[in-house]
């Protein structure tokens, strides 16, 4: 069994975008992958820790933080 995982980052216009626009973006990706022979399995949320950045000589550094990314899982 083979799997394919791709990131999903929905883009939404705050003035006129709705949840339907996000659904349409996801649907488009799923349909395109299906045409390539992949079967949609699920949307996964992957949580990861981004390491702190010390910056240059201690200036411009950023603290570490936790973030979540959405991944679309397909089965081939």
Task: Characterize this entry briefly.
This protein is an alpha+beta fold. The chain is 22% helix and 38% strand. The longest helix is centred in the middle third of the chain and has 17 residues, at 19-35.
Query: Mean pLDDT across all residues, rounded?
Result: 91
Number of helices: 1
Strand order across the biggest sheet?
1-3-2
Radius of gyration, CA atoms, in whole angstroms:
17 Å
- Counted up, domains total 1
Ranges where pLDDT stays below 50 over 5 or more residues in a row are none
Structural class: alpha+beta
Major sheet size, sense and barrel closure: 3 strands, antiparallel
User: What are the secondary-structure elements, in order, as H or E?
Assistant: EHEE
Helix content: 10-25%
> β content, as a range?
35-45%
Report the span from N to C terminus: 7 Å
Coarse shape: flat
Beta-strand segment tally: 3
């Amino acid at each position: 069994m083979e799997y394919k995982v791709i990131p999903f980052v929905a883009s939404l216009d705050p003035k006129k975008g709705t949840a339907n626009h996000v659904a349409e973006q996801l649907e488009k990706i799923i349909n395109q992958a299906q045409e390539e022979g992949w079967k949609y399995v699920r949307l996964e949320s992957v949580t990861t820790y981004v390491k702190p950045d010390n910056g240059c000589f201690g200036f411009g550094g950023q603290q570490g933080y936790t973030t979540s990314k959405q991944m679309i899982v397909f089965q081939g």
